[in-house]
Amino acid sequence: LCAQATGQAAKSARTVVIAGIPDGLLHDDVMTDILMIHFQMSKNNGGDVEEVMYPTMKKGVAYVTFEDEEVVESVLKKDEHRLEDKRLSRYYPLKVTRYCENVFSSVTSVLNMSIFKDQFVLEDLIQELKKKSVALSFGPLQSNGHISVQGSFPAITLLRDFLLLKAKSLSEKDEREDKSHQRPKKRLQQHKLTTETSNFVRNADWEKQVIVLDTDMYHYMKYFFPSMFLVNGDVVISDVTDGDVTTVYIENAGSRSDAGQVLRVKEKIENQSIKLHNTLRKERIYFEERTRDEKWRYERVCKSLKPHYPSVLITHYDTHIDVIGNPSEVFEFTKEV
Asked: Is 68 helix (H, G, I), strand (E, B) or coil?
């Protein structure tokens, strides 16, 4: 079993995802041959190809597995991949990504920073946020105070929570201060975000906490880590799902003797979600016919394979099946299905 698991892990680590393949132009075997040639050529930073999976359940997508994991790194370093062949009328740009990239790769959010303009110089605030959140990509600051931020779901959520706490702290401070017509802008150097974070947490309402999770991540955690959501009678956990986002509410329903218990439960769930975010991958298997018989066949196959892939979560929908788990098991499970 150990040898098998190691082999599977190595295979997923040696695989890249190819998107942008022109579907329907050539026979599948011919397109597979063209892809094989492309990723074996030295000018494309390629190497020996073990397998090309095409077509797949995703239109215009193929999986290419190399014999050597180092070739993956080499292929990814190439700025642009152009699929060219005499059997094609023109070249087609390809997008090449690592198969082992996490399932929830990127989220884009628009932040309204205008609420901080009376307390901080927004440009300085943004620069400090960039230093604090190195995993995020920030767009230009707009004249209305809006800025686009892109990155992983946990990183976006942590930034959102931090800014909400900051806004709440400023609001409470305004209530305590005497009202004045003018308040000079304070340079960020006098109010470092890094030093303020702990104060905001101490001032937060520990009786109720909110966590925003990706819905798939929430389902995976509830299935494989149910104990995280089974707490004593003093803490109540509820959830509201809206599409791809699930909001988890953690409240203190008992005595106030341990006000920090709610916060500890929140931190435990958050830490586990961040850990899983960096290790999980999702594949979606679409139904072609969408008939009851086809769905039944897929369900039967998934049920028979599930014991061989213990860490995979399978979720059935009307039009597709979602498979979530570590990259190696998801890769092999989807291939077998």
From this structure: coil
